[in-house]
Amino acid sequence: MSSTLFRTKKVEQSILDTEEPEHALKKSLSALDLTVFGVGVIIGTGIFVLTGTVAKNNAGPAVALAFVAAGVACALAALCYAEFASTVPVAGSAYTFSYASLGELPAWIIGWDLVLEFALGTAVVAVGWSGYIQSLMDNAGWAMPAALGSREGSDVFGFDILAAALVLVLTGILVLGMKLSARITSLVVAIKVTVVLVVIIAGAFLIKGENYDPFIPKEKAVEAGKSLDAPLIQLMFGWAPSNFGVMGIFTAASVVFFAFIGFDVVATAAEETRNPQRDMPRGILGSLFICTALYVAVSIVVTGMQHYSRLSVDAPLADAFKATGHPWYAGFISFGAAVGLTTVCMILLLGQTRVFFAMSRDGLLPRFFSRVHPRFKTPHRPTILLGVVIAVLAGFTPLTELAALVNIGTLFAFVVVAIGVLVLRRTRPDLHRAFRTPWVPVIPILSVCASLWLMINLPAETWVRFGIWMAAGFFVYFLYGRTHSRLAKGEGTKPEQAL
Questions:
Q1: Which of 39, 177, 318, 366 is deepest in the core (most CB within 10 A)?
Q2: Which of 69, 76, 75 shows the shortest CA–CA distance to 445?
């Protein structure tokens, strides 16, 4: 039985599967498109919200160093993703990489994990987008009825029609084709980056040097929590990460990591890239570098404009401009956040549909979902199904408490991909690798350690929910996937064998 659970799918077979006419995606993306996708999904609410939270509670002005630390952890994982994406240019990202290196059961686990990560991420971002739009509408004197708005903090049962509508519109765009999606993303990302640059440039003239004193506030002890909403590290070792000081910077890094979620989504588009061997590493690493630089610049500016102890938690950038006598920027920033979240939502939805498509093409999910649209060459069936499901989730379910599952799902994928690089280097040294992760095994091992460290800083309750979802995944695999996979049936890769 163990031999069937860990049977691997050869890289060559995965690539041949992409040539089946009824299951082949259209190759239309360039390195610039991939970089824009990466920037589009990474820059979201994190840059507009998390800066104030971690500066005030954990790191002070040294929040810039926390962004650097989180960026380094992501860069370690990005180097591993770049090798896999250029070597196995197939839809599915970490799922496909795991199938080629670790085996079917680990691949299923990571695929099931990614479905949860992207679904919740899309729904949470859609609800956040709806909140920004409603804020702008309130400023204009047009209040959304309670029954049709966001439900967080409200006693009124309703349906968030804006969040659901956004998901459905983006679903339609994704069905129509990747090039259209790339063009819309490019336009929105240009607006979003312009807003961030304006904030950086305008804020730079409002910096006061005394606000950086002290740059790293003195460390304060924190009482270790005993409830499930405390970080897992507290329950495991009986101590809590310190507020401020050097350890406060690393604690802050585990929080601001949420702001970097998304660069791995770029890897899901490998099969739709014209030259994946060259362009995937450029897109993944380039987008991560650009966003890290913007995050560091924003954090330096906002902590220089207003002392960290007085920063707002809900809207630090907007409120910092208000505190310096420039309230006009508050609306400008809200507009930038609302516009920017549309691309975050779309690209997360894109990532989920590609993982679902890859799993169905391998038979682990019904192969009905692996047929592409005859005209648009997109996986329209899983896109429509998942779009409708996520629209309902975003409309009915307050998901704030589940957002941490997105973090743990991403970090788990990072761990699996790093291990996969080590395994595939040993089992298939003959493979042509257009991009090679440097300093193997050091970089993959450091990536695993950094990801695990950030994971244990997440609340224990998040681990419980994650465990429940994984248990459900095992049930589905043994009930359906193990016996229906193409490897289990001994199917080859010839087009005439496709269903």
A1: 39
A2: 76
DSSP string, 125-191: HHHHHHHHHHHHHHHTT-PPPGGGS--TT--S----HHHHHHHHHHHHHHHH-HHHHHHHHHHHHHH
Q: Per 3-state DSSP, what percentage of the chain is helix, strand, and coil (rounded to 5)?
A: 70, 0, 25
Q: How far apart are CA 482 and CA 1, in angstroms?
A: 10
pLDDT value for 237: 65
> What CA–CA distance (Å, rounded) separates 210 from 203?
15
Distance CA 38, CA 209 (A): 34
Q: Which two tokens mark 301?
A: 């500016």
Q: Which amino acid is at 482?
A: R
Q: What digits encode the pLDDT tens for the residues 347-392?
A: 889 889 999 999 999 999 999 999 999 988 899 999 999 999 999 9
Position 334, amino acid: S
**Residue given tokens 């991560």 in the structure block:** 288
String of DSSP letters for 414-432 = HHHHHHHHHHHHHH-TTS-
Q: What is the number of other CB atoms lying within 10 angstroms of the CB of residue 259?
A: 25
Backbone angles phi, psi at 231, to 5 degrees: -60, 145
Please name the amino acid found at residue 139.
Answer: N
β-sheet bridge partners, residue 243: 220
- For residues 38 and 42, give the distance between their C-alpha atoms in angstroms, rounded to a whole number: 6
Which sign, positive or negative, has the C-alpha torsion 89, 91, 94, 98?
negative
Q: What stretch of H or E contains 269?
A: none
Q: Compute how many other C-beta atoms are within 10 angstroms of the C-beta atom of residue 219.
A: 13
* pLDDT digits 0-9 by tens, 298-349: 999 999 999 999 988 767 887 888 888 887 887 788 788 788 888 889 888 9
Q: Which residues pair with 194 in a beta bridge?
A: none
- Could you tell me if residue 149 is left (phi over 0), alpha (psi between -120 and 50 degrees) or otherwise beta? beta
Instruction: Kindly indicate the confidence band of residue 467, based on its pLDDT and cuts at 50, 70 and 90.
Output: very high
Residue closest to 231 by CA, chosen among 202, 251, 250, 247: 251
pLDDT of residue 1: 59
Residues 6+ apart with CB under 8 A from 30: 273, 274, 275, 279
List, in sequence order, every residue forming a beta bridge with 231; answer none if it has no partner.
459
CA 120 → CA 42, 270, 349, 367, 400, distances in Å?
Answer: 16, 23, 10, 24, 10
Give residue 238's region: left, alpha or beta (phi > 0; psi -120 to 50).
left
The residue among 461, 468, 453, 336 whose CA lies nearest residue 403 is 461
